[in-house]
Amino acid sequence: MISTTLASELYGKSIITGDVDREFIARFARVHEDGGFDRVLVGYGSTGADGFVVAAHAASVTTRLEYLIAHRPGFVAPTLAARKAATLDHVTGGRIALHIITGGSDVEQQRDGDFLDHDARYRRTDEYLDIVRTTWTSDRPFDYDGEFYRVRGAFSEVKPWQRPAIPIYFGGVSGPALAVGARHCDVYALWGEPVAAIRQSIAEVRAAAPPGRHPRFSVSVRPILGATEDQAWARARAILARILEVRGNANAPARPQSVGSQRLLDLATQGEVHDKRLWTAIAAATGAAGSTTALVGTPEQVAESLLDYYDAGATTVLIRGFDPLQDAIDFGRDLIPLIRAGVERRERQGVPAGSRAT
Length: 358
Description:
- By secondary structure, the protein is α/β, with parallel strands linked by helices.
- The chain has a domain at 220-351: Luciferase-like domain (TIM Barrel).
- It is built from twelve helices and twelve strands.
- The chain has helices at 22-34, 51-60, 78-91, 106-111, 118-137, 175-184, 195-208, 229-247, 259-270, 281-286, 299-312, 324-348, and strands at 39-42, 66-71, 96-101, 142-145, 150-154, 168-171, 187-191, 216-225, 273-274, 278-279, 294-297, 316-319.
- Strands 1, 2, 3, 6, 7, 8, 9, 10, 11 and 12 form a ten-stranded mixed beta sheet that branches.
- Helix 1 (22-34) packs across helix 2 (51-60) and helix 3 packs across helix 5 (118-137).
C-alpha cells in the first residue's frame, strides 16, 4: 500500500492522508516495483487525496507495478466512474484494478454527504457495480432502473484496456457485504485473522457466489520482521510502545461500526497471539482501524505463516509495514522471495491453493 507521504500509526498519521509529496509517491512506488511487488493499494478516505490521481502519477514513474485503487461507491455516478477507470486503464497500459469499499462508518460517509444506513449502502453498491460492469462491456446503449440508480441510453465509447473488464476487488464481512461481494468481485479481500477463520470466510463467500463466479481471495496483514524471533518480538513491542506514545492521552478508541474491525477487536479479547504468530495488540490499541493484525517473526517464519493462508485458499497477500518505506524495501529483499519460492514448491508438487488439510 503506497501513501502520499510517510505515514502510519508510528507517525500518528493515517496512510490515507491529505499531505501530497510527489517525489515521495514516486519513490515509494519505485521501491515496490524494485522489490518485486505485483500490485499496490491506493487507499480511500473522506479527507484524503484522490486515489485515481495518485495512481496515475505513480504509474507514470513505473513500468510494471500495478495499482489497486480503493473506490467508495455512491459519490461519483457509476457510468462516469466506469469511464474514468477505463481511461486510466488505457493510460497505464492495463495496470489498474478497483477495490470496492462500501463504507463501514457513518461519520466517514456523512462527510461526503451520504446518509444511507449500512444495509442500504450495500444495496446501492450492488446496483453501482451492475452499471459499472455493463458500461465496460456493453456494445450498445442500455437502460437501468433500480432503487438508487436510473440511466437511459448509457454507453461508453472507451472500454477497458483489460478485456472484458477491469478486475474488481471487494472488502467487507457483514452479511450484506458477503452477498454483494460474492456476486460481483474477482478477488474478495479479508483482513488478517487466524487461518481457520480465513478458511471459514472463504467457504462462506464461495457458497454465496452465483453459478459460474469463482472469486479469488486476498488476506491483508502487517509483517514485523527480525533477524531472530526474539528480535522480531522486541521490535513489535517497540512499535506498540511508540504507537501508544504517539496517541498520548487520546481517549480509548470507540467501538467501530465496521464489522471487520469489530472482528479484529473481538479476536484481540480472545488472546494476544493466535496461530503461530498472529499478533493482535496493535489492533486493540488502535481500535482496529483498518488492517492492524501483525505477523511477528523472522522472514522465514512470517513467510511460513503467509503460506498457511495460501494453503487455506488465499492466492494474494497484501503486506504493509508499520515503517512503510523501509519495510517495503525489507519485504522485497527478505520476504517476497521466500513466499514465491514456497508457492513454486507447492505448484511443482501439484498442490494448489486451498487444497491442504486444516
